[in-house]
Model the fold of this input.
Amino acid sequence: MPWDNPMAAAGRKQGELYQTRVKVRGHGLGPPHVYVFGAFLSQVVTDSLHPQATELFEKYEAMSLAERADTVRFWRQTKCYKEDETKICLSFAPTDTGHQFEKVIMAVLQNTEGAQIRSGRPPPSFLEREMQ
Done:
């Protein structure tokens, strides 16, 4: 996904805000990916990128922190080796709610200019190839 994409920028900003809060309050805030995904989803709603996004965002906001962490199992947003790109790795719970979120997010990413979706296992690393 392009580095300057508003969704990616919202996630980065929330991640930086989380780091600042942890320095002040300590680690009692829960997992950071819950907040970063919330900011990403909020930007999807703001930009009206999917018709179901508003409904899912309201559902997400109504969840407790534990329910959010259980639904969005993994969300990492990192700088890519190409400086103008960001990489998002994600995983949702195998539940109805998790599938709803996955369906909407994948549809949004497929329609995002410059985004590439790669699913499944990554190619083997150098050491993995050596062991085969």
